Amino acid sequence: MLVSWKYRPRNTFIQRLDPRSRLIFLACVILSLTIPNIWDIRLIFPLFLLTLTLYLLAQIEWKDVRRAWLFIFFLIFFIVGLNGMLSGRGGPTSVMNDTSAPLFTLPVYFPGTTWGFSLEITLVRIVFAITQMTRMLSMAILALPLPYTMDPNIYGVAFRKMGVSDKVSFTMDLAFRFLPTLARDLSITIDAQRARGYEMDSLKGGIVARLRRLAPLIVPVTMQSTVTGEEVIDAMDLRAFGTAPRTWLKDLHFARRDYLFIALGVSIFVAFCVLKWGFGIGEFWIPPALVAGLN
Length: 295
Description:
By secondary structure, the protein is mainly alpha-helical. It has 13 helices and 2 strands, in the order αααααββαααααααα. Strand 1 and strand 2 form a beta hairpin.
């Protein structure tokens, strides 16, 4: 049987919302944050505070999302942040062609050699890195609670009620369940191998040796995933899936709070569009106090 994320019913404002309103709001926020040439931290930071508030309202336990947040923090701070601070790639021209005086210089040497180079860190790129990290965190904070606070029985229903076809709706339903199902199979395989005396904590040697020792885990998990996929396909074929419109066991209805939540998301997107293309607001901005402090 396919499993889902660590979903728990919670009597919170977030869970009382219709899943469609949450998906539409998420889409509006992502579209707002990805509008071309929106680099102003004064626009991005208030949206970050709003998404953080919604995340706290979800009341998700830290133990449930600890691993997910560790991966997100690593991705954002060590990839997005360092890339923005060191190179400014993906940013506006003022950041890519930054010629301001460096705040400090980081010497970098290749291990075991005297070869190296210096990285000049400027105020412009530091502010750009902070802006990029705030943007990514805003999207992650809003998207992460979805699988932990949304009933897995209504994944497909939510997409179907939004006008998506039965095939796409069922595909999205299975996609949401794939990773936790894979994690469950991996956990079962690890326990089974440990019961047979396989030491998980003694993987030594180079990359090739470690991959070879992981074969007792990778092979069974891969085979089980293939078998599970074939079982799902057979079950769908036996029920003549795709030959006619389907009915869904669950039903969804919008409440007043859902309309207000959708209106908030649409208003944010419209406001960003008006500020960008109507008033020309959104270009890269550095707090004048920081510039004055350096001068």
